[in-house]
C-alpha cells in the first residue's frame, strides 16, 4: 500500500488562471487537569484560515487570513483575526528563488498550522520555542539533494515591524535517500542587552505507511541573558488503514526556566479527503513545582 498521509488532504480551489484558494476549519473540544483537578475545558471554533495563492512561471504570491480563538495552544494569545502571511516570491532560476513580505520561519519539524500536524497539539519542545511569522527578505537554493535557506527579518521571534533589532535565519537541508529529509537551522535575534538564538536539527523519514522523526533544539539566552536550554522530540505515525492512523510522540524540555517530560498518543480517523477527526491524550510532568498535567482533546478538521 502506498504511504497514507496522516494529515487531511488539501486541494486548492481554482478561482482564475494562476489564482487559487485553500484553507481549513478547526472545531475542537478539550479538557485538561493538573494533579487531578479540572483546570480548563473548552468546546469552540478554534481556528479558521483562508489562503489566497497566485503563481505563474516566475512570480508567486500568498496571502493568509486566520482566525484563532484565545485558547489556542500555539499562536496569538489574545486570539482574533490576523494577517498571518503576505508575501511575493520570484524564481530567479529553477533552483534559486527569493521572497519578500510576511512569512513563516523555516525552523522546526512540527508545522505551525493544525491542518498539517500529525496530531492534535504542538509538543512542549515546539510551542513557544520555534520562531513564528516575521517580515523581511528570504532566499532559498534547492538542488537535487541539497539546499540552503537564509533570511533577514524584523525580529526572528519578536517581529516588531522595525529594523532596530534584526533577526536572521539560515538552514541547510538534504534528502540523501528516498523518503529521508534532514534539516539543520540556526536562528538569532539581536537585542539591546543580549542576542537570543537557537540551533535546530531534525530528521524525518517516510516509508510506506510509517513516518518517523527526531528533533533537537539548543536554546541560548532564550528570554533572558544566560537562560539556556535543550528541547527534544521523537515522533512516529503509522497508518493502519487508509482511514485510521495513530501518532506517538515523546518530548522533553530541559531549560533554566522549565523541565518538562511529555508523552502523547493521537489517533486520527479519516472521514473523507477533506474531513478528519483527530483525538489525543497527552501527559506532561513538570519537574519545577512537581505538577502533572493530563489533556484529552478532539478536533474535527475540514480542509479545502
Average pLDDT metric: 91
Order of strands, main sheet, comes to 2-3-4-5-6-7-8-9-10-11-12-13-14-15-16-17
Helix content: under 10%
Q: Which fold name corresponds to the CATH topology?
A: Porin
- CATH architectural name: Beta Barrel
CATH class: Mainly Beta
Number of helices: 0
What would CATH call the homologous superfamily? Porin
Sheet with most strands: 16 strands, antiparallel, barrel
Tally the structural domains: 1
Secondary structure topology:
Blueprint: E1 13-16, E2 19-34, E3 37-55, E4 59-68, E5 80-91, E6 96-104, E7 133-142, E8 146-153, E9 167-177, E10 180-189, E11 196-207, E12 210-220, E13 229-239, E14 244-255, E15 259-270, E16 275-286, E17 291-303
Antiparallel strand pairs: 1-2, 2-3, 2-17, 3-4, 4-5, 5-6, 6-7, 7-8, 8-9, 9-10, 10-11, 11-12, 12-13, 13-14, 14-15, 15-16, 16-17
Q: Could you characterize what this model shows?
A:
The protein is mainly beta. The chain has one domain (13-29, 42-303): Beta Barrel (Porin), CATH 2.40.160. Helix content is 0%, strand content 63%. It has no helices and 17 strands. It has strands at residues 13-16, 19-34, 37-55, 59-68, 80-91, 96-104, 133-142, 146-153, 167-177, 180-189, 196-207, 210-220, 229-239, 244-255, 259-270, 275-286, 291-303. The chain has a 16-stranded antiparallel β-barrel. Strand 13 and strand 14 (244-255) form a beta hairpin. The radius of gyration is 19 Å and the shape is globular. The protein starts with 12 loop residues before the first strand and ends with a strand. Mean pLDDT is 91; it is low at 1-5.
